[in-house]
Design goal:
Blueprint lengths: L1 E5 L3 E5 L4 E5 L1 H12 L2 E5 L6 H12 L16 E6 L5 E7 L9 H7 L4 E5 L8 H5 L4 E6 L3 H4 L8 E5 L5 H14 L3 E5 L5 E5 L2 E5 L12 H14 L4 H15 L10 E2 L8 E2 L1
Parallel strand pairs: 1-4, 1-7, 2-5, 7-8, 8-9, 9-10
Antiparallel strand pairs: 2-3, 3-13, 5-6, 6-14, 10-11, 11-12
Helix pairs in contact: 1-7, 7-8
Amino acid sequence: MRVGTVGDNVVDRYHGTGMMYPGGGAANMAVHARRFGCEALYLGVIGSDAAGALVAGSLTEEGVSLELCRRPDEANAITDVSISPTGNRVFTSFTTSTTLIVLAETDRARLAGSDWLYTNYSSGTEGLVPELAGLAPLVFDFSYKDEEYAATLLPHIEAAAFSRDTLSDEEAVALIRRVQDAGPSIVVVTRGARGAIVARGGDVHFEPADRITPVDTLGAGDAFLARFVCGLGHDESLATAARAATMWASAVCLHHGAFGHAAPIAHDREETIDV
């Protein structure tokens, strides 16, 4: 199975510990697809500073192909993170990359025919969605974005993911049906400690969360989504894929950072924006 991810990477800085970790939805998705055993291609913008070196080195170590990446002479995207007493990550400031992703013919040729392509709300790739969907089945993570934002994108998407930790079971199923009516056949609604509700076509499955004491929830949703769609791609049932994805995400919550690879915080060429 081949998974291509297009979009964001970031270095998450934990000033409370003085350490930083690679992350970002598209980078996380590529890593977890590769850990599952897929061929993983990442197309994103990696900076030329110490943060960019951490991202490139960790993705390479994980076996993710960076052949399609842009490597401009600019600072890598950075997010500052704090951890609440319950282990929930809180983003306090960020920088973004200045280089935008535009697909080249070589990108299209390499991504075409993948089992899954992935992008998300935080990658600035909304304009690429129709083109990506023409290359392979597309997964889009909307996170907490509303349905108005999603409306023009949903007709192009095969699998849509939403974070909705306040929705009841009935409200989550209603959201799933509205989303499916707009296009995607596969919908994931993650709800943190309340578990996840997943659907494929007319089938709906309720998966409870594992009872753990989280160290850091950063990247757990990305891990769930990666394991879930990869499982479906390997002909797992809806229930089997959801259970495995929950266990996969739970393991991420037991360490700092989205997928490890800690390094001391570097401060070269940083510019942060409070959020």
